[in-house]
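Supplementary Text 2. Reproducibility record for the structural model of the 366-residue chain.

All settings were left at their defaults, and a single model was retained for analysis rather than an ensemble. We include the record here because the model underlies the residue-level annotations in Supplementary Table 4.
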Amino acid sequence: MASRILALVGDCYGARGGIARYNQDLFDALADGDVEILILPRHGDASGIALPPGVRQNPPIFGRLRFSFAAIVAAWRFRPVDTVFCGHVFMAPLGYLLARLLGAHYWIQAHGTDVWKDRRGLVRRLIGRADLVSTVSRETRRILLGWVDLAPERVRVLPDTVQDVFTPGPPSEAQRERLALGAGPILLTVGRLAASERYKGHEAVFSVLARLREKFPHLVHVVAGDGDDRARLEMVAAEVAPGAVRFLGFVPDADLPDLYRLADLYVMPSTEEGFGIVYLEAAACGLRVVGGKGGGTADAIPDERVGVIVDPADRQALADAIEQQLALGRADPAAVEPYRRPSFVAAARALYARLSGQPRRMTARP
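Retained model, structure tokens:
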């Protein structure tokens, strides 16, 4: 009989964003014919999407109480369940309850800022009850183990994976002309422009553009992404770096490879990335990167073949890093190979096989 996973997630198939993509990659990897997966999302409509064999996704339910009730009903109908997967630590109470009811393994996924601060007592205790906690970076694992009572061997790193579409290729001159980017060089940043994510460092980049333009008069910073902080960022850019920043708005995933290939350097001096898959996407397209100190960035920028990490508070160091990386030319895509799909699939399946072989720990009360 196939092993069964009940997955409680915020975002998955039919949703956008890094966590949605991670969940899709994970379930794609685990769907090998011997595993059945029922996904219960709060966001994302999978209607019309061809899901992997053995994978089903119910319609999204946003409200917490409605979601919890529907999850209990769906879980009972899906029995027997071998593993309850929680795609976010905020779902730990519901995940633990279902694991207890179903006699299943209890697996929690941690992405970054969701576990960088000590959570309230109940969530903290229920993370400690997990049979497995997977994190996307070594830094997230280190921080988590610093405040939760969890045996280190039950916390494993399963980093993001780079999609096959991200490969080197010639830049599109037609795209450069259409976007009116001029001679360049072109700096690129891709990410949500959200007030809650100002740690990504857009303003730090804006602040050094004037001095960079002294050496590179036609340098332009292309910002791809949208969000509730866009209008404010546009005003900041117009004030500190007039004419140097182009805001593209939301760019579909299918168009990102060509955008990376068009740029000369990827710059996002973020200090709180859970991992930073955009760094690897850029490097996979041959684009060198400049990241910020903090979070899981060190996992996504593994060595000098990809780029460098700087403290964005040191504006001179940031400007110097951008200039130095521009002089080095293209990144070595070979550095990204360990993050390609074959490695992720092998690691995900090995992690699940290890979990399945363990005795279930659902015996003690929280």
